Amino acid sequence: MFRVLFKRFEKFGLSLHPEKTRRVPFSQPDDPGAGRAGGTKPGTFDFLGFTHYWRKSWKGRWVLARKTAHKCLSRALRRISQWCRKNRDKPLREQVETLGRNFQGHFGYYGITGNLDGLVQFREAAIGIWRKWLDRRTGDRGSMPWERLKRLLDFWYLPEARVVHSIYAAKP
Fold this sequence. Notes:
By secondary structure, the chain is mainly α. It has helices spanning about 1-10, 70-85, 90-110, 115-135, 145-155; strands at about 45, 50-55, 60-70.
């Protein structure tokens, strides 16, 4: 299979990195106890910033699901933290506008059906990071308790976590 795949890619001027190309066992679990004590866990893999995995639907069938990959979530939050640290002394309006654009970009890419928990986790963690750096503004040590931040968020708008790309949306 690999030989054919590499030849096919070469035909179009593309190449695969041999160390990064591998087969992953990822078939639909047959085992009714899969994922529970005693059962074998279904496989997972990361691709394009998502962890692909099997989960049970409400109707009890196995369905393919995707969530934000842990590495990508950590990287996004680390970038938010670096930005907040460098820009903590800017006016709040500028900070809220920039954070809002970051949230919209994150939700625009990762906002797929089944990933709402990951989006909420990102939003809450990013707001916590922002509060931490606002609390460390020059001369204002300890001036941003959670109650004050909540009032600030009532006044300034930061986008809520939402699914942007739904598999259930009506097609035009």
